Amino acid sequence: MRYLLLETYKGFGFITINRPDSLNAMNSDVVSELDSAVQQMIADDAVGVIVLTGSGDKAFVAGADIKAMQQMDSEKALVFGKAGQKMTLTIENSPKPVIAAVNGFALGGGCEISLACHIRVASENAVFGQPEVLLGIIPGWGGTQRLPKIVGTGIANELITTGSQISAQEAHRIGLANHVVPQEELMDKCKEIGKMILKNGPNAIAKSLNCIHESFHKSIEDGLKYEVNAFADLFETEETREGLTAFVEKRKANFR
Ligand code: COA
After folding, report:
1. Residue 33 DSSP SS3
2. Which residue has the least CA distance to atom 28 on ligand 1?
3. What is the DSSP letter of 38?
4. Which residue lies with its CA nearest to atom 36 of ligand 1?
5. Are 164 and 108 in contact (CB under 8 A)?
6. Is 75 one of the catalytic residues?
7. Which CATH superfamily is domain 4-198 in?
8. pLDDT tens for residues 121-163?
9. For 202-248, CATH number?
10. DSSP-derived secondary structure letter, 133
């Protein structure tokens, strides 16, 4: 891959967006590579948790590539927008948790990529924002759809219409960042969370994420029905037998 660095290690799949000269801005090639890389990690049995970050110590992703967008007409913008949305859906629908290690600017498309991730860990220098309106455009990779679900409509309305940029601490206060840590501890914090996840049953993790995701589209009754079926389905798996039996036998479950 031209713009990404990939590494797998002890259950982790690390993806680094590597376009530091442009603060990891996303042109259509980077979008398509990221989509493929996440799919590759999902298909890799050795990977249980994916960590996504940007190269360098300044930016996670400073947005969709503004220089590329300047050349687009409406038709090209539609293709670009749809490709970006597809990539965010690949991340969001991953059965393996995707942790965003937000190591600097997460603006526009960068913020939207982090929104599609299941967990966001920010370094103290991280900056989040949806500054699209400053450019006369709107978020096109899910910002108007996912941000309100994470921080609430009132805050999303303000962030998107003012285009203001917020600190990691403010992102933490509004529930956008799960944790804020010094930059040199960012990867360790992501690994600490990942290691806890890796001890658990992969099917149970995938089903949990799926049920949480589905809850946004269903009434409480339908959501509960969906959840209880997923709960019951797991009882047909060896993983669930192992988890329950290990407790009864007073030993650690061995899921992987
Ligand atoms: N698209 C394309 N190139 C970008 C970019 C983007 N979203 N963000 C940064 N870059 C490029 C800059 O053009 C510059 O390239 P150059 O040296 O060839 O001119 C390089 O990355 C470094 O950025 P620079 O602006 O010099 O760094 P800075 O530290 O002064 O400012 C930011 C950092 C993030 C505040 C600033 O780059 C910025 O506002 N970027 C755009 C953010 C944005 O609006 N994103 C949403 C897009 S929808």
Report:
1. helix
2. 23
3. H
4. 62
5. no
6. no
7. 2-enoyl-CoA Hydratase; Chain A, domain 1 (3.90.226.10)
8. 999 999 999 999 999 999 999 999 999 999 999 999 999 999 9
9. 1.10.12
10. G
